[in-house]
Amino acid sequence: MRITGVAEVTDATFASEVLAADGPVLVDFTADWCPPCRQMVPVLADIAREEADRLTVVSLDVDRNPETQARYGVLSMPTLMVFRGGEPVRSVVGARAKARLLRELDDVL
């Protein structure tokens, strides 16, 4: 599922794109078959554009990248996980309005 302004990462690129990133990275663990994931597309596109100075947003398709999904114990979609310094620092599960999501992530950004 393509999101404007959001890079797709894979099992092969996760370490370099997410774990080695300088600032915080919001990873959208998603799947094409997931209706709540589709609800998050415009929210994540807005956040990627509006918060670009303090947050990188990327997307990972769990069906095509099972290693990363398993490594972080992601069982429900969408799971949104913030990584900082190579470690997950916040995880939220389920679709959310943009304002609520930003409030929930504010202290880790």
Automatic annotation (TrEMBL):
Keyword Mitochondrion: no
Annotated Thioredoxin domain residues: 1-109
UniProt xrefs under InterPro entries: Thioredoxin, Thioredoxin-like_sf, Thioredoxin_CS, Thioredoxin_domain
Keyword Electron transport included in the entry's annotation: yes
Top-level taxonomic group: Bacteria
Transmembrane segments: none
CDD domains membership: TRX_family (cd02947)
Keywords: Disulfide bond, Electron transport, Redox-active center, Transport
Pfam families found in the cross-reference section: Thioredoxin
Family classification: Belongs to the thioredoxin family.
Protein name: Thioredoxin
Gene name linked to the record: trxA
